[in-house]
Design brief:
Layout (H helix, E strand, L loop, with lengths): L1 E7 L6 H14 L3 E6 L13 H12 L5 E3 L2 H5 L5 H11 L4 E7 H4 L8 H5 L2 E6 L12 E8 L5 H9 L10 H10 L4 H10 L2 H20 L4 H10 L8 H10 L7 H7 L5 H11 L6 H8 L10 H12 L7 H11 L1 H18 L6 H14 L1
Parallel strand pairs: 1-2, 1-4, 2-3, 4-5, 5-6
Bound molecules: fe (ii) ion (2 copies).
Length: about 375
């Protein structure tokens, strides 16, 4: 008897998973297939569907494969279950079975660092290769390589697409896509709400920023999904008018720098900080870095993380921005994020001066910080 185990975060399951499992089933002809969605920490951003929804997506994904069961082993325990524990459990259930683990080539390189590698060596591994990947088998592992190359789809990239309103359905098996749509997962519900409450132009800007923010994050080694999510919510403070924004900031003691002076002289600047508060309270975002990116997307601050800088730049360089600098800034940001960050901070201060508006002290501090990054 052969049992094939396929673990993953499946957030959401996609065509890459499907192609991998298809090939594995053809190659191995297993008597049983177990799909095991992994538990994800609710405090880590970048994953988005709650465990029950993810279990439903994985079930929809598994339907077309015969003799396949979705095993909620990890989701029920509500903690990360190590692969050696999963193997021990399978061994207990099928003492005489041949156990096979299915994984992508990116997993294989890390196997040596996993807990209890000696237990992992006792199972067999089936590996599918992503385009361009090389097979490096860690010593002592029994590995069979699946024929062909598997599509380079990732759940992170898919979520980034969903958050920014870019096409996504072709990367997902149909029954999975239907469930995502019906249950309004991966930001679809937020997009519905924001389109109702923001103007058409503001919504177009929002999705433009989400798309650029995701793209810049990917290019510069940040989490594209977290960046696109921050982009989707960055202007959510604008669902309030300035009077309501000021009331909200005072009542909730939102940390707007120089709060009273800001609310008097340039109340619209509060939308970023109020937006971060709304992202947390109303939309349930928990990741500190994402919230910080939203709070500081307009004025910035010294010590901004790279994700914060990505959103700061994406906000003034997005494709919907009418001013001539936007296009050049976009190009620059793809090549050199910190140079673009400095240019963005300079441009903002220049506009404030040209238009005779109040110079917020935080703007100058951000500029000094940006200059420091370049030297
Ligand atoms: Fe904004
Ligand atoms: Fe914006």
């Amino acid at each position: 008897m052969k049992v094939l185990i396929f673990g993953g975060s499946f957030d959401p399951p996609h065509r890459g998973h499907e192609a991998l499992l298809d090939a594995a089933v053809k190659f191995l002809k297993p008597d049983r297939v177990l799909i095991v969605p992994t538990w994800l920490s609710p405090f880590k951003e970048g994953h988005a569907a709650p465990p029950s929804a993810r279990a439903a997506l994985v079930r929809a994904f598994a339907k077309k494969f015969p003799r396949t069961f979705v095993d909620l082993f990890e989701l029920r325990r509500k903690r990360r279950v190590y692969t050696y524990e999963l193997l021990a459990e399978a061994r207990r259930r099928w003492p005489r079975a041949e156990l096979w683990l299915l994984a992508g080539s990116d997993t294989l390189g890390q196997l040596g660092q996993w807990r209890r590698p000696e237990a992992l060596r006792r199972a067999s591994w089936l590996i599918g290769m992503r385009p361009g990947a090389k097979l490096r088998v860690p010593p002592g592992f029994h590995v069979a390589r699946l024929r062909g190359r598997f599509p380079d789809v990732s759940s992170t990239e898919l979520r980034a697409r969903l958050y920014s309103g870019r096409p996504w359905k072709r990367f997902v098996p149909k029954p999975v896509a239907r469930r995502i749509k019906r249950r309004r997962l991966y930001g679809l519900a937020w997009r519905d709400e924001l389109s109702r409450e923001l103007s058409k132009d503001r919504m177009r800007h929002t999705l433009g920023v989400a798309a650029l923010s995701g793209e810049l994050a990917r290019r510069h080694g940040e989490d594209a999904s977290a960046a696109a999510l921050a982009g989707l919510l960055h202007d959510c403070g604008r669902v309030l008018d300035t009077a309501a924004m000021a009331r909200y900031a005072r009542r909730r003691r939102v940390p707007v720098p120089w709060r009273e002076r800001t609310l008097e002289r340039a109340p619209l600047l509060a939308h970023a900080y109020v937006g971060a508060e709304l992202a947390r309270r109303r939309f349930g975002v928990t990741a500190a870095d994402t919230l910080a990116a939203i709070a500081h997307h307009t004025l910035g601050r010294p010590g901004m993380s790279r994700l914060e800088r990505v959103l700061f730049v994406a906000d003034i360089a997005s494709a919907d921005r009418p001013f001539p600098e936007a296009k050049a800034l976009r190009r620059l940001a793809r090549r050199d994020l910190d140079e673009a960050f400095l240019e963005a901070a300079r441009a903002k201060l220049r506009w404030v001066r040209e238009e005779g508006r109040w110079e917020h002290p935080m703007g100058l501090r951000t500029l000094r910080y940006a200059e420091g990054l370049r030297s």
